[in-house]
């Protein structure tokens, strides 16, 4: 009844979802009845040899036992002609005390007489297990399974007589799984239960790892009810399969069922697998909860665990948090592997933070981790995206020298980089190189080419290219259409851009906020604010969620057109609809009101912005300082300048000019002189009025050398500026 107790114990802690699976199981009798009527193994009774056959068997056995260093082929060679399969089976009982001789006899028979009988292979497997030659037993069992249909029956038939151990059935079960006869393996498990033998969980894990999810779940439940005590690895296989199928919540139920189970306690792999499952689904909070629980249990996260979380953080653009997790990993003594470095490099490449990319590559090399093709491609992507094509090509050459071949992703990254720089010839040269290397350009490659053509103003050429590849069966995606819409809007052909969006929908692709925002921007720049506003209404009516960029485009359009009241109403509508404006939204309004010299309204908007938790940026401070300086509100200008400097922001050239003039008007010459010196050190060009002011000041102070220097500088820079 031990099997029954084990089954009942595991059922009590197993998740409800699997109890339902158990109740719907369809197989042979339940374990309760099986354990009370276990049948004995059959008695082995081979047929008796004749006197002549017995003499031959005795001679062969004696020759084998008396041999010393001679190979079996020399000792038994003269017996080969008359030695039949029956003789082999009759010989084996006489060699049961010396398994090595028995196995030598089997090998000799195979070499001189051909296939070994199924019964002899089964006996040989038993003898190998007894002598702890497990690899030999596996080989014999595999040969038997591949050669004879009834081989499992022969192993069971010969088991009792040859005093084998239950381990032979683990090996037999594994051999059946190894040759991928999975239904037969399940049937063997059920059959062995009737003899009171339960295959080990370790052997059954090999079966679980090969099953589809549905069969895995049913087998897990069935074997458990039949008395198998699954271990941690078994549960981890189930959790992994559920996570791969996107059923992470069900996988979590399995984890909960493991708690308190002495045979299957959750380990690092359990938690790491489930953490990866939640990360793949974008469920960062759930992943972090498990990470914390794992730490509380004293289980140290490994590189795989950290990589799952860091990958999701990079995917979500949370590079600061990803870097913090990376530092924590180092602090806990977990050595990052190549995958983690590549993940971080790829994340920083996507946001154009090349300093971080270079730092990580150097750290990686110092750790004796050799960058692979994926690492190099990530670096190349970042360099190309940032317009550093010379460095990208240098990295490509290093990649090739290290023995890594660029693939279609690498080529596409370079093609996209050349396209953005307007170097269309270089982009198409790489496209041809890609073809010569045997890689097939995909829709992303052609989108990059089309995008480059569009940015270069060659919209018709881009259109022709895409029609050509579309005719070859390549399906265009939304990015391809978006590139065409952008290109057409850039050259002012809004009407054709609208038609492209119609074609996009006809192709079964639903436009998102990007093409709408691109069209709205084009309408705003052409002064057609009514049509831009209509596009926003159309987006909302169709359930397409505008992005903050969409609203900022419309806000900038209203402000540029002088429709400040419309801009204010848009801002109020956004707040009312819980659409959070960002700094750019407020800056557009503040800039236009500042140009209108309405600093009272600018101040109101600034306060409204800060009270809403929106932090001012460098552009905000430049707008405020320029506006207040022109309005001669120097107290306010000085206040914002101090705050700006404390936050690490800097003045623009126009802000310097306005601020210096305001200080001079207030007779604050010392402060003005300091700012003028700072402005010159940063390479900014002051306007003629400011040069005239400081030329007069230095002349009145009889500072002839500085006066002449400023005169020369004013003539040179102001002349160049007017020429430009």
TrEMBL record:
GO terms for molecular function: mRNA binding. It comes from the Eukaryota. Signal peptide: none annotated. Keywords: Repeat. PPR repeats lie at residues 267-301, 302-336, 337-371, 372-406, 407-441, 442-476, 477-511, 512-546, 547-581, 582-616, 617-651, 652-686. It holds the Pfam family PPR_2. This is Pentatricopeptide repeat-containing protein. It comes from Zingiber officinale (Ginger). The lineage of its organism: Eukaryota, Viridiplantae, Streptophyta, Embryophyta, Tracheophyta.
């Amino acid at each position: 009844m031990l099997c029954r107790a084990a089954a009942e114990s595991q059922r009590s802690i197993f998740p409800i979802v699997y109890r339902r699976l158990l109740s719907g199981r369809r197989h042979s009798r339940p374990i309760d009845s099986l354990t009370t009527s276990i049948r004995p193994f059959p008695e082995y009774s081979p047929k008796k040899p004749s006197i002549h056959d017995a003499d031959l068997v005795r001679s062969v056995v004696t020759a084998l036992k008396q041999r010393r260093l001679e190979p079996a082929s020399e000792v038994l060679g003269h017996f080969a002609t008359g030695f039949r399969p029956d003789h082999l089976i009759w010989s084996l009982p006489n060699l049961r005390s010396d398994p090595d001789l028995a196995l030598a006899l089997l090998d000799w028979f195979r070499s001189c007489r051909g296939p070994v009988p199924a019964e002899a292979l089964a006996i040989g497997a038993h003898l190998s297990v007894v002598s702890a030659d497990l690899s030999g037993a596996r080989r014999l069992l595999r040969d038997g399974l591949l050669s004879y249909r009834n081989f499992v029956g022969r192993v069971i038939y010969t088991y009792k007589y040859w005093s084998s151990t239950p381990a032979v059935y683990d090996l037999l079960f594994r051999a059946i799984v190894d040759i991928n006869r999975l239904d037969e393996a399940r049937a063997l498990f059920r059959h062995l239960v009737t003899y009171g033998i339960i295959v080990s969980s370790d052997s059954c894990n090999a079966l679980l790892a090969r099953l589809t999810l549905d069969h895995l779940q049913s087998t897990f439940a069935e074997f458990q009810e039949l008395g198998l005590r699954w271990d941690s690895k078994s549960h981890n296989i189930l959790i992994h399969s559920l996570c791969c199928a996107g059923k992470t919540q069900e996988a979590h139920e399995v984890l909960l069922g493991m708690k308190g189970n002495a045979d299957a306690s959750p380990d690092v792999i359990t938690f790491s697998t489930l953490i990866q499952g939640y990360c793949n689904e974008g469920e960062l909070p759930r992943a972090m909860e498990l990470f914390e629980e794992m730490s509380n249990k004293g289980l140290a996260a490994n590189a795989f665990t950290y990589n799952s979380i860091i990958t999701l953080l990079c995917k979500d653009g949370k590079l600061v948090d990803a870097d913090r997790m990376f530092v924590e990993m180092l602090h806990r003594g977990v050595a990052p592997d190549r995958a983690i470095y590549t993940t971080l490099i790829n994340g920083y490449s996507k946001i154009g933070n090349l300093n971080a990319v270079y730092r990580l590559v150097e750290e990686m090399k110092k750790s004796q981790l050799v960058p692979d093709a994926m690492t190099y491609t990530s670096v190349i992507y970042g360099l190309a995206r940032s317009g550093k094509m010379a460095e990208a090509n240098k990295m490509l050459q290093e990649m090739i020298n290290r023995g890594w071949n660029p693939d279609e992703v690498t080529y596409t990254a370079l093609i996209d980089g050349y396209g953005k720089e307007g170097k269309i010839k270089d982009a198409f040269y790489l496209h041809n190189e890609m073809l010569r290397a045997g890689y097939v350009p995909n829709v992303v490659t052609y989108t990059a080419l089309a995008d480059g053509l569009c940015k270069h103003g060659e919209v018709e050429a881009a259109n022709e290219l895409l029609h050509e590849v579309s005719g070859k069966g390549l399906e265009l995606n939304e990015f391809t259409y978006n590139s065409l819409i952008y290109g057409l809007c850039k050259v002012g052909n809004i009407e054709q851009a609208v038609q492209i969006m119609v074609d996009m929908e006809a192709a079964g692709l639903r436009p998102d906020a990007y093409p709408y925002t691109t069209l709205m921007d084009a309408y705003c720049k052409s002064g057609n604010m009514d049509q831009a506003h209509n596009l926003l209404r159309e987006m909302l009516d169709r359930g397409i969620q505008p992005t903050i960029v969409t609203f900022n485009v419309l806000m900038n359009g209203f402000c540029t057109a002088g429709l400040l009241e419309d801009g204010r109403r848009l801002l109020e509508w956004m707040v009312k609809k819980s659409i959070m404006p960002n700094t750019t939204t407020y800056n557009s309004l503040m800039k236009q009101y500042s140009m209108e010299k309405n600093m009272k309204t600018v101040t109101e908007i600034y306060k409204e912005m800060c009270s809403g938790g929106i932090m001012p940026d460098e552009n905000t401070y430049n707008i405020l300082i320029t506006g207040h300086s022109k309005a001669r509100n120097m107290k306010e200008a000085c206040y914002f300048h101090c705050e700006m400097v404390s936050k690490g922001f800097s003045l623009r050239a126009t802000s310097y000019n306005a601020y210096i003039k305001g200080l001079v008007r207030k007779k604050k010459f010392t402060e003005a002189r300091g700012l003028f010196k700072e402005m010159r050190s940063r390479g900014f060009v002051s306007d003629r009025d400011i040069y005239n002011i400081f030329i007069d000041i230095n002349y009145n102070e009889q500072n002839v050398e500085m006066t002449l220097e400023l005169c020369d500088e004013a003539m040179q820079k102001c002349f160049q500026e007017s020429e430009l």
